[in-house]
Structures are given as C-alpha cells and as structure tokens.
Amino acid sequence: MAKIDLPTIASGYASNTTFNTTFTAIENEFQQKVLYRDNPTGEPNSMQNDLDMNSNNLLNVKNLSIVGTGTITIDGVDYVAEMTTIYNNYLSLIDRVTISTLAPSGGSDGDIWFKVT
Fold first, then answer.
1. pLDDT-based confidence at 85, cuts 50/70/90?
2. Which residues pair with 78 in a beta bridge?
3. Contact of 91 with 83, CB cutoff 8 Å
4. Kind of pairing, strands 113-116 and 97-100?
C-alpha cells in the first residue's frame, strides 16, 4: 500500500481544485509524517514507531540516551540484565565482608583487617 494516495488530475476547470487538494495532501504528509534530518526550530520531530535499521549501523552518535526501563542488547546479550546481576553480586559480597581495626590473632591493633564469610 502506498504511503500517500494522490488523485489523478484530469484536464478542465475542476482540475485546479484537485491540483490544490493534492498539494495540500503532500504538504500534510511532510508536515506530520516525515522525520527530518535538519528539523526547523520549534517543530516536533519525534518517532511514533520503532525504526528498523535493517542490519545497518548508527554512525557518529555523540550521546545515546535511553529513557525508562529500556534494554541495551548487543549480539543477543542484554547488558542491563548483566549489569544488574553484577551489581546484585556486589551487594551480596559486601554483605559478607567484615572490616575491623581490631587485630585478629597474630596481627597488630590499628591495621585494617577484613574477612569474607
């Protein structure tokens, strides 16, 4: 299906109205349904659907911002889930670490000692 359907313009007086209506339809499509590379200031320029890059790259990205609970998947690896696992493992480890300045047997007071249980 076509992105925009335009009428066939026939000759005659009525064709002027059809011609203007057709250009209005084209203008509306460009104003409301096109993502601009160089958007006019103050005009909306946001995505309404996913953008499929068809295995092509995004090049020269200065900053990448992910809002909400999005995921970052690279070659099938969900990096948000991986980082969450690493963080949870870190929390589990620090819950098991004891730090003390009291010397265990064979040490001197004032040294910092730690024990992982």
1. very high
2. 73
3. no
4. antiparallel
